[in-house]
TrEMBL record:
Cellular compartment(s): Mitochondrion; Mitochondrion inner membrane
GO cellular component, one term: proton-transporting ATP synthase complex
Organism of this sequence: Drosophila gunungcola (fruit fly)
An example molecular function term from Gene Ontology annotations: proton transmembrane transporter activity
One family name in Pfam for this protein: ATP-synt_F6
SUPFAM superfamilies xrefs: Mitochondrial ATP synthase coupling factor 6 (SSF111357)
Name of the featured protein: ATP synthase-coupling factor 6, mitochondrial
């Protein structure tokens, strides 16, 4: 019984180690595969370009289209013009006071 549970535990550990290595391996700085290295270089380049939080490699036409779409969405959903339509809305649920239910003593 003990040997079976020990063998089962070893299998689980081996599977977990394989999964963890599969997740961590692409994040390493050195890549053995040249295609993987190109991918990592492009990801780093994109990270540098997107540092300001704006669109990457945009031109004035794309900026106009974005503004037009944001204006259309703001109009459709009744924005007052001050609301940032790119920000996820914040939901506030006030705590509702519930009256305790009292049972009449008999």
């Amino acid at each position: 019984m003990l040997s079976q549970s020990l063998l089962s535990g070893v299998r689980v550990l081996r599977t977990e180690a394989r999964r963890n290595f599969g997740i961590v391996a692409p994040a390493l700085n050195k890549a053995a595969d040249p295609i993987q290295q190109l991918f990592l270089d492009k990801v780093r380049e994109y990270k540098q370009k997107s540092a300001g939080g704006k669109l990457v490699d945009s031109n004035p036409q794309i900026e106009r289209e974005l503004k037009t779409e944001l204006d259309r969405v703001a109009k459709q959903f009744g924005s007052d013009g001050k609301t940032d339509m790119l920000k996820f809305p914040e939901f506030k649920f006030p705590e509702v006071k519930v009256d305790p239910i009292t049972q009449a003593a008999q």
